[in-house]
Amino acid sequence: MLFRGEGVEVVKEKVKSLEVYEAGPMLTFSMGPQHPGTGHFRMIITVVGDTVVRCDPDPGFVHRGEEKLCEYKTWITNIPHLERPAILDAAGMIYPYVLAVERLMDIEPPERAKYLRVIMAELQRICSHLYWLGLMGVFAGHATIYMWCFGDREYLVDLTQLIGGQRITHSYFVPGGVRNDAPSKVPKELVKDFRRYYRMMLGKDYPGGEVPEDFRKYVLAVCEFFDTRLDEYYPMLLDSPLFIYRTRGVGILKREDAISLGVVGPVLRGSGVKSDTRIDEPYDAYPYLKFNVPTMDGCDSYSRIMVGYYEMRESVRIIKQAVEQMPEGPVKLKQHPVTIKVPAGEVFASAEAARGQCSYYIRSDGTDKPYRVKICSPSFRNLIAIPHLIKDVRIADIPIIYWSLNYWPVECDR
Amino acid sequence: MSSLIFQELARAAANFLSGLPQPLKDFILFLHSDAFIKAIIFPGLLFILTFVMFTIWFERKLLARVMVRLGPLHVGKYAGLLQLVADAVKLLSKELIVPEKAIKPLYVSMPILCCTLSMLTFAFLPLGPGWVIYPSDISLLLVFVMLAITPITILVAGWASRSKYSFIGMVRFAFQVFSYEVPFFLAIAGVTLAARSFNLEKIVEAQAGLPFIIPALLGFIVFLITAIAEVERVPFDLPTAEQELVSGWQTEYTGAYFALFYLAAYIKLDVIAILTTLLFLGGWHGPLIPNIPESILGHFWLILKSLIVVFLVLLLRGVFPRITLDKLLDLGWRVLIPLSLLNLLIVAILIQIGLL
Q1: Closest CA to A353 of A85, A146, A71, A59
Q2: Whole-complex ipTM
Q3: Chain A, 201-260: which have a CB under 8 Å from a chain B CB?
Q4: pLDDT number for residue A6
Q5: Distance of alpha carbon B90 from the chain centroid
Q6: pLDDT digits over B279-335, tens only?
Q7: Is B322 helix (H, G, I), strand (E, B) or coil?
């Protein structure tokens, strides 16, 4: 069938083409960009047997030119598209931009706006971390935790929608405050739905029967519920012996390596470095709130995912405090026209996004458009850890290590 | 009056038959024969397909419950019962794609072979006293011949796909076969020793008083673990691990080919469940139930017990993450083989002191 009456050269060619696997002990294959384990991203993996000897990350499939786009749009119209790189964490992505513009304009938002921003940022952090934890389950072959995380995430996203008007990418932050105030009452349907879900998940009615319709109390109720659900995730996935076997000691990023590679966020804190922009350079309402920065000394995938788990706990704490302390008052200095002019100058601002420190460098030449915007997103800084970690590991460890970094290709490519 | 009509009808039918040519007559008699009914209806094709369809539907609904979702809902009158039919129609209407570099004859024939061999296993499984398609004194061995041949079709399928992911998945599957096959057979040895027969019917008859799960508990545990590895269920689904290898050895298979492999996997799951029931759980023996006639009581107990085993195996998928290859080999060789040998020793001692 293969050698049907052809010349020697043709037959040789055909025999060669039969060896799809390259000659020798090595096998090189591409993981992504159409692979259930990566996303819009590619890793070129070389294996010997079951051991990975080399991993070349190949980002850039979802490059959108956000930085260049910023130069053609005005200061205000930049906000919606700058959220797109990390839609699950829109608040974290836009926070440093708004801070930087405020610094250039030398304005300070009202107190209530500061608290609303913090609430929004922490809600988005929880949503992003739930996505991380849920997908971590999937990457380990455990689909249940994924469904649980996404089911619970729904009620936090509903809160985001209540405050910002959109489930994701709400463009809520504007220079000098937030776009609108939070409503004082929660819609009846939402309360009813939450009550039904509460009964379904916890097997009992909401204490006191009625879920409060007051915004403040409703947020507290959801936070309380979510805290209880976090307790249930622990035995389901994080304490499961097989999951611990899959993740503990896998993908070890030593403390010194983490510092010298310059990784940020949960990856850095999972290596035992207590570094968080919210504490190191506090902004907005964070100085008034009490919270811990969880770190783990294991330096492995398990430590990183556990840092994410404890951070959700801390975020719940922050939201509870912020809702209770939030003063009344205006939420923005004034309604800006779309074509505001920002004084000339250059500024650097950073904030703690869900995946780590997100920084913006902005230069203004005094017109209604930025002269330059440079974004340093957390995933971009964590990318360098991928070839460092995926080396001398088993093929089965690749998805675990990759996802324990919480790498988000779109955020990296910008 | 009516009996007269029936007599008349029977005479007419006999006349009609005798008037037919011999081959056609044989064929009609064959359709009416015991063997044909067994092969096509009860322990045979129709039963297998119904059982497999129920298993798949049950898995979807059960896992949906575990994961707090609804599962299939719309197709079929009640709870998405016909979802599988819709899936099958969709898969069968797809284009049959054979990769350019694949070895076509092997690539195309393996799904068919895999499905057929898995179904053939049912020929030797008694689903009630006397209800077996091919009665044999070595039916247990024949079942294992079938169970040992199906992995070869999978290995060939992975190799014939000529894709890198298929190749890695195939190698993983080969390792998996290495790790579970030996303890799998050793776990059976205890049962055959206790029943002193390879005939599945005799094995079940030997459990009339006491199911073998009690003297051979270790063997049961080893058998169940290795059986889950045999059918590639979570936590032992590493040859088709999605996040690591796209779909392992079945990456290149689409449409009808994929449907056949899918069917084969679930047939194997049901075979394993029924086999566990026959070998360890006492087969069709069970207490009398007032409302169920005695003629189907045996089948009722057998199917109920198999469904409990199926339930256990399916539930694992909702609870466990995937295991790795080195852990699987470690488990197979260092834990399960000693355990199954220990089980053999215990059974031998029990026989020696006259308890079995």
Answers
A1: A85
A2: 0.80
A3: 201, 237, 240, 242-243, 245-246
A4: 65
A5: 24
A6: 888 888 877 777 777 778 888 888 889 999 999 998 888 888 888 888 888 888 889
A7: coil
- List, in order, residues 6 or more apart from B4 with CB less than 8 Å away: none
Q: Exposed e or buried b for every residue in B230-248, given b needs 16+ CB within 10 A? A: bbbbbbbbbbbbbbbbbbb
Structure tokens at A227: 């805290």
Domains of chain A (ranges plus CATH)?
65-381 (1.10.645.10)
Q: Which of B324, B326, B330 to mutate to test the interface with A (most CBs of A within 10 A)?
A: B324
Q: Tell me which residue in B66, B105, B244 faces A144 most closely, judged by beta carbons.
A: B66
Helix, strand, coil share (%) of chain B residues, nearest 5:
70, 0, 30
Q: Cβ neighbours of residue A97 under 8 Å, at least 6 residues apart? A: A78, A79, A82, A349, A360, A362, A373
- The DSSP output letter for B215 is T
Q: Phi-psi bin for B13: left (phi > 0), alpha (psi -120 to 50), beta?
A: alpha
Judged by a CB distance cut-off of 8 A, whether residue B238 touches chain A is: yes
SS3 assignment, position A174? strand
What pLDDT is attached to residue A19? Answer: 46
Residue type, position B229, single letter: A
Measuring CA to CA, how many Å separate B305 from each of A121, A309, B193, B271, B311?
53, 41, 23, 13, 10
**From the list A17, A18, A142, which residue is nearest B321 (CB)?**
A142
Note whether B203 and B271 are within 8 A (CB). no
3-state secondary structure of A351: strand
The separation between CA B281 and the C-alpha centre of its own chain, rounded to angstroms, equals: 16
Q: What is the DSSP letter of B168?
A: H
How many angstroms separate the CA atoms of A374 and A366, rounded? 17
Please count the other Cβ atoms lying within 10 Å of the Cβ belonging to residue A376: 16
B53 neighbors B84 (Cβ within 8 angstroms): yes
For residue A28, what is the nearest residue in chain B, using CA coordinates? Answer: B164
The C-alpha R_g of chain A, in whole angstroms, comes to 24
- Nearest to A79, CA basis, from A54, A97, A104: A97
Residue A1 has pLDDT above 50, yes or no: no
* Three-state secondary structure call for residue A53: strand
Alpha-carbon distance of B61 to B56, in angstroms, equals 9
Of the ranges A145-154, B5-14, B149-158, B311-320, which one carries the lowest mean pLDDT score?
A: B5-14
For A47-71, the pLDDT digits (tens) are 887 888 888 888 888 888 888 998 9
* CA–CA gap between residue A144 and residue A136 (Å, rounded): 11
